[in-house]
Design goal:
4-stranded antiparallel sheet, ATP-binding, ATP binding, MacB-like_ATP-bd, Rossmann fold
Length: 221
């Protein structure tokens, strides 16, 4: 098992943003969470990443209980094992597209440099970033920034990819590129949990949950 969520809740006063959610994700699963804005999807994902604390409940990555480790240990674990794509991605302003993609690789050192270079070339090609590889973030469109952030999240071949609206800033053509890339990575063993309004993306998932008012319902495909 890659991830276990046990009775997880997040309350803001009397508002239950996430209300007692439990589910498991196994190796190579592809899970999508859909639902209207304000239903608690992003709050749930933020708690799973460890960037937002829970009011109650526990999060386990394999046998590691998130609440039992320090912030520093969590940051190191996240860098090595979790790929993160946020709805509003930020790149390092003084680094080029290629350098931003390679940055997690340099920080973690999970593979040899040549292997990282090959992985970077594959991602740049797959996401059609070759014409902007040397440009700085200030010259990029929102869609180009998002595509770069997706490549950055995948460069370390994480144990699990957590993605919040990965196709949110993309046109239909680039959304299809991302859909195919995520499906390909999943077929090769990457575990994926994503939040999305894009039903084309969601229906590639093996399991779909609909979230409303902080609660979960499994969708029968």
């Amino acid at each position: 098992m890659i991830l276990r969520i046990n009775n997880l809740s997040r309350h803001y006063g009397s508002t239950k943003a996430v209300n007692g959610i439990s589910f498991d994700i196994n190796q190579s699963d592809y899970v999508a969470i859909v639902g209207p804005s304000g239903s608690g999807k992003t709050t749930l994902l933020s708690m799973i990443t460890g960037m937002l604390s829970s009011s109650s409940g526990e999060i386990y990555f394999d046998t590691l209980k998130l609440s039992s480790i320090t912030k520093g240990e969590l940051a190191r674990f996240r860098a090595k094992n979790i790929g993160l794509i946020f709805q509003f991605s930020e790149l390092v302003s003084h680094l080029s597209v290629e350098e931003n993609i390679l940055l997690p690789a340099l920080l973690v050192g999970k593979f040899e440099e040549q292997e990282y270079r090959e992985k970077c070339e594959f991602l740049i090609s797959s996401l059609h970033l070759h014409t902007i590889r040397n440009q700085l973030p200030s010259s990029l469109s929102g869609g180009q920034i998002q595509m770069t952030a997706i490549a950055r999240a995948l460069i370390n071949e994480p144990e699990i990819l957590l993605a919040d609206e990965p196709s949110g800033d993309l046109d239909p053509e680039n959304s299809e590129l991302v859909r195919k890339l995520l499906s390909d990575f999943n077929s090769r063993g990457l575990t994926i949990l994503l939040v999305t309004h894009d039903m084309n993306l969601a229906f590639d998932a093996k399991t779909i949950y609909e979230m409303r008012e902080g609660s979960f319902t499994r969708v029968v495909k």
